[in-house]
Specification:
219 residues; alpha/beta; three-stranded antiparallel beta sheet; globular
Length: 219
């Protein structure tokens, strides 16, 4: 479904370049749910943007088969001057879905009331997280890319998210980046660590956590 072939990515910073990926190759196992650990600045969100195609690698190739989601939690997915309804209509057209049906589903799920027709740029972080998560669940993707924002809202909303998420995961893969171990344990069956431009092999969550803790001591 997703394959990275010798992918490299870096960004210019004062005094040089910050390397996110350094000649990284991997193939995502089918119907797998991978949690990626990494310190702040390791490049976890950048990795999701590369997989989604919203950024291009410096070198290498990314092969995508099937429908890959936008990175859930990435603010660039939504235009801040447009309302949630307008953003959803645009995304529905991109993915070839009926925007009326999609919009109605998201409006009910997100529970934003009149704010659904207000510019997304006026939302609080909690409101934005609700619309980001709800929008991702409204589309049928083969691979979901999630950046930290599964646990949002009150207890009732979190239960609704967990139920929708579980339903989608019956027939889809997941790449989740988070620093919260329990979130990764809840939603993922494999783990990996992004550290100094290298991505570890996909292993059990416990093995990935051990690798992550060693990387913290080495930082």
């Amino acid at each position: 479904m997703i394959r990275l072939e010798r992918v490299s990515k870096s960004y210019a910073v004062p005094g040089g370049r910050h390397v996110i990926l350094d000649d990284v190759s991997f193939e995502l196992p089918p119907l797998s749910r991978v949690g990626i650990f990494g310190v702040n600045g390791a490049g976890k969100s950048a990795l999701l943007r590369l997989i989604a195609g919203s950024e291009m690698p410096d070198r290498g190739r990314i092969v995508r088969e099937g429908r890959v989601s936008f990175p859930v939690g990435f603010t660039g997915t939504f235009h801040p001057h447009l309302s949630a309804r307008e953003n959803v209509a645009f995304l529905a057209r991109i993915y070839g879905m009926n925007h009326g049906e999609v919009s109605a589903w998201i409006e009910e799920f997100a529970e934003l009331d009149r704010y659904f027709d207000m510019p997304v740029g006026t939302y609080s972080s909690g409101m934005f997280a609700r619309i980001a998560v709800a929008t991702s669940f409204a589309f049928d993707f083969d691979l979901y890319l999630v950046d930290e924002v599964i646990e949002v809202g009150d207890a009732a909303f979190r239960r609704k998210c967990a139920a929708a998420f579980g339903e989608r995961m019956h027939a889809a893969s997941l790449i989740l980046v988070s620093q919260h171990v329990e979130t990764i344990r809840q939603y993922c069956n494999l783990g990996a660590v992004l550290h100094r431009g290298r991505l570890s092999d996909f292993t059990t969550i416990d093995e990935a956590l051990e690798t992550y803790e060693r990387s913290l001591r080495a930082t």
